[in-house]
Amino acid sequence: MVWLPFILFYMERALKQKRRINLYSITAGLIYGIQFLGGHFQFSYYITGIIIFYFFWRLFEGRTSFKNKSIILVIILSIGLGIAAVQLLPSYELTKFTARETIKYSKGIFPGTDKLDLFKLFSFVFSHFNGIGRYSHFQPFYIGLIPISLGILGIAKSDFRKTGVFLFLCVISITIAAGNNLPFFKIFYNFLPGFSLFRDPLKILYIFVFGISVLSGIGADKLSNDRNIFSVIVITLSLFFLIPAYLTLGSFGKIFIGMPEHLLHYLEKNAAGDLFYFAASITFFIFMYKLIAISGRFKRKISGGFLVVYVFLDMFVNTNSLKLSMDKAKAQSKLPVVSFLQKNIGLARIYSYSENRRLSDFSDSAFYHGNNLADNLIFADMCLAGNSFVSHSLSSFSGYSSLPPRRLLEYSRASLNIEPFRKTAYPDFLIYPNFLRLSNIKYIVMNKNADDLYFSRSNSFKKVYEDASNKIYLYKGCFPRAIFVSGFVLIKDARKILNRLKSDVFAPQETVIIEDAVPYHSYPQKPYKLTIDKYEADRIVATVKVYNPGFFVLLDSYYPGWHAYVDGRPAKIYRADYLFRGVYIPKKGNHKVVFLYKPKSFFVGAGISITTFFCCICGLWGVKRNRQLL
Predict the structure, then answer these.
(1) Category of 561 on φ-ψ map: left (φ > 0), alpha (ψ -120 to 50) or beta
(2) DSSP string covering 348-359, please?
(3) Which helix (H) or strand (E) element contains residue 218?
(4) What's the pTM?
(5) Which helix (DSSP H) or strand (DSSP E) does residue 485 occupy?
(6) 325: confidence class by pLDDT, cuts 50, 70, 90
(7) How far apart, in whole angstroms, are the C-alpha atoms of residue 92 and residue 193?
(8) Above 50 in pLDDT, residue 203?
């Protein structure tokens, strides 16, 4: 979001130029493209909407002509999207494989989604109001008393044509941030393209912060130039209006509006201190700033500097606890549990439990000796943070991703009924041997205090490690990263595939489930020799000796962009056992199988990005040359 002011600045300058293709339009497009590459896609989506809205607002004001200036909007959007193509095309490809693509409103917004409510509004002014303890998820949106009041002053004292666009951004961002707390959100969700892909409407409040920042700047300018006492009255009333509202919440929150207990506790503990800070800030700021602005002893730059320092100190004091940190040496140290895993894991995976990971409903599942796995492990801790195993070159099935593949979620839950915004694999599959074996999971890692009754009673698991913090169980039935299967069965229905994998009579080491028609015959399973010679992020090389034709099954996720070669010849990659990759070996003997990751979406996007950048350089050179000729 830090790029938005620069984009609008150069866009405004571009709209004021006589030439349609000018330095400012190209620069705005370049910055627009750069913010795609360095930020969250949800913010880029909002910025795109703001650019379009800002252009049409200027048309509404009559400051520009659509016929003459529409090319500027096209240039900015085309350059930005072209520069970002190297990221946008692979990201679009990824969304086609996630659960978010076809979600509906009823499933897209659920109780756990972050959205704005009445209580969070006070966090704009009181940084810890909606938090529990030292850190609040809402805390990044703290604005402070003075900027909000100056924003109100800017709206009250300035021309609407100057402030209207930013006021509208504030209103629309508040509306969207409220999620399904307001009826308008459903309209955006169902009719605005791409809007339903995002989980947290609260993120749009960065737009509100931006709008208030601009409006407060306009208000500060008015305050420093206006000697009329009306300015002081407006800013004072707007600030002190919050005091009775704050006290009302403390007195009647629980009775009338169902305020959560932790907020009531916060009010009882911190109300006096907050109100003292509130009153002291208002008094000090109004009189000191007005004195500096009115007196002829100081220039406007000095008074503006005073405002900047004041707001900076206010932000520092109220958001300092947002800086979450830990000891660097501790973060970089290698735990004993990591050393054990690195020594013994090979190409297998681990699965670890987290205290915030909840198991789904197991009411229709059979448990070992009747013990409920969910009850045993629901509060188990993960020995390391979500994706920290990656830094130790360990492969985890329980890693964190904001966009996990839909099939991964369905496979891990052994069901098509999944949450569209879930960020980690379900643990449901652990009770089904076929799912667990195919997942290539060798070790189950958990907190030492976790109830391990399920694992300790099963002959399939063996405790192999324990220290002061963690314990590890070895899964004895773990498949290697790649297997060779001579038999296959064709099943296209997803539900039937998952049900077949659940069955105890199905043997994945002898039969593989394929979803596309295969012009080959199925053979009985015979012994084979398989070795993975090289395993890299974008290249896998294996040699296999077989005595029957069949499928080389690599227990990595099926995903577009991978290309397979058998003995140097291109081979089709089949979706195997719902989630993995399979390549057919047509005859017995020794074979070399190679997987290469060469995604078309990336290379096409890179070509577009390079071409766009080159065109921008030529355009800037052309603009500079025309200036010299003039």
Answers:
(1) left
(2) -EEEE--TT---
(3) helix 205-225
(4) 0.80
(5) strand 482-485
(6) low
(7) 13
(8) yes
